Structure formats: structure tokens, C-alpha cells
Amino acid sequence: EIVLTQSPATLSLSPGERATLSCRASQSVSSYLAWYQQKPGQAPRLLIYDASNRATGIPARFSGSGSGTDFTLTISSLEPEDFAVYYCQQRSTFGPGTKVDIK
Amino acid sequence: QVQLQESGPGLVKPSQTLSLTCTVSGGSISSGSYYWSWIRQPAGKGLEWIGRIYTSGSTNYNPSLKSRVTISVDTSKNQFSLKLSSVTAADTAVYYCARVIGSSWYSNWFDPWGQGTLVTVSS
Q1: What is the rounded CA–CA span in Å between residue A17 and residue A19?
Q2: What CA–CA distances, in Å, run from A74 to A31, A35, A39, A78, B43?
Q3: What's phi and psi for B43, nearest 5 deg?
Q4: What SS3 string covers A27-51?
Q5: pLDDT tens digits, residue range A49-103?
Q6: Nearest-CA distance from B56 to chain A in Å?
Q7: What percent of chain A has pLDDT over 90?
Q8: Cα A31 from Cα A23, distance rounded (Å)
Q9: Nearest beta carbon to residue B62 from set A32, A36, A92
Q10: Closest Cα in chain A to B104
Q11: Is B107 an interface residue toward A (CB < 8 Å)?
Q12: What is the block-wise mean pLDDT of chain B (123 residues), using blocks of 10 residues?
């Protein structure tokens, strides 16, 4: 079974700053990786699928990259509503999440 | 657009069976080539995929839960359901239903999600 590792566990940034989140797979998953955003008390929301495709309605400040075992979610300029937990996912496995909080 | 809503008891006794239903609105559960999935999240923890079902009845389950899980679909009611048997306190979680988008098992992406329902296992 594939294991996903996310880093850092917590990222403390200010609005307007760039956020770079990492997800590493224990073996190659090609480009089959998704990213989700979860705010407190809410269900997760799909942001990125197939490593780099934005889901419907997702702002352009969110971008995904990578293939094989190393993937990155970038938020180009943090908006107040972007402070949340972000999970990567492949098939039946989710990563442990990265919390982006306000510095 | 498609919306999903979970329903079922919020409290289940240990050793009993947890039963939840997900009602799909805004579209037919049978339209398009979609799987439908259950995912859970214990309080303060990460996400765990439980399983998924196609409208034909074909299923895939998380190996760690497979012996206790049954997912079924009722296309006439536009619903799919989860049964988890022999529950313990470790099964206490928010349970989400979601549509699976993507064309293959490798593209097992979840969108949209229901709002989630908290199920507590306690006597």
C-alpha cells in the first residue's frame, strides 16, 4: 500500500505570502494525486486532481505540480479564506495533512 | 449541481451495526460513469477511505475494514448506504459520502462531498 507523507505539518504564514506544501509518495504514483482543502467544521473540498488540474471553481492562485513520488501544492498569494488544512490523496490513501495557519 | 446528504443515527452502541444513507440530489445517481464513496474522519484526525460502489453494484473496500463493511446502492431512491458491523469506540468519527470522479481506480478523486454526519459509538 502506498504511504503519503506531507510536509511541513504546520505552515505559519501571513496573508499575501506564498505557500508551498509538499506531498511525497512511498512509491511512484505517476500523476495520480489530488489535493483537498478542509476548513474547521466543513467537509474537504477538491482543489487539484491528476497532480496539476484545478477542480471546477478553484481560483487560479492554487496550483499543483509534480509526478512520480514528489508533489507540490502552491498557493501564490494567501487570502484570509485559505487558512485551512490541506490533504493530498492517491487512490485509497490520504496524507496526514498540512495546516496553514496565520502567522 | 449534484449535492449529497448523509443521514442516520448519531449514536450506536458497541458491537452493533452502524448504518448510514447518502441521498444524492440535483442529478441521477445512475447518470454518468461515477462511483460513490464513503470516507470517515475521527475528531482531530485525518481522513480514512472506507469504500466505494458503482451503480451496477460493484464495490471496492478498504482492506482494513473490509470484513465489517457493506456498501449498497438503491438507484430508485437515488441513495447509497453504508453498514459497518461490530463497531467499537474507534469507529467514532464524522462520516462523509462523496461522488468519485475520474475514469479509473487510479483517478479516485472525491467531488463533491456531503456535509458529514457525526457517529458516536458509546453505550
Answers
A1: 7
A2: 16, 11, 17, 10, 27
A3: -55, 130
A4: CCCCCCCEEEEECCCCCCEEEEECC
A5: 999 999 999 999 999 999 999 999 999 999 999 999 999 999 999 999 999 999 9
A6: 20
A7: 99
A8: 12
A9: A92
A10: A91
A11: yes
A12: 97 98 96 93 97 93 97 96 98 98 86 98 97
CB atoms within 10 A of CB B4: 23
Q: Which residue has the cell 449514536?
A: B11
Tell me the β-bridge partners of A77.
Answer: none
What was the pLDDT predicted at B105? 82
Candidates A67, A91, A98, A99, partner chain B, best to mutate (most B CBs within 10 A): A91
Q: Whole-angstrom Cα distance, residue B24 to residue B45? A: 27
Residue A26 and residue A96: Cα distance in Å, rounded? Answer: 14
Amino acid (one-letter) located at B96: Y
Query: DSSP secondary structure string, B10-33?
Result: SEE-TTS-EEEEEEEESS-TTSSS
Mean pLDDT of chain A, nearest integer: 97
Tell me the CA distances in angstroms from A87 to A71, B12, B109, B111, one per residue in order: 12, 29, 12, 14
Query: What pLDDT sits at residue B103?
Result: 75
- Identify any residues that bridge with A85 across adjacent strands, giving them in sequence order: A38, A99
CA A32 to chain centre: 13
Band of the pLDDT at A2, cuts 50, 70, 90?
very high
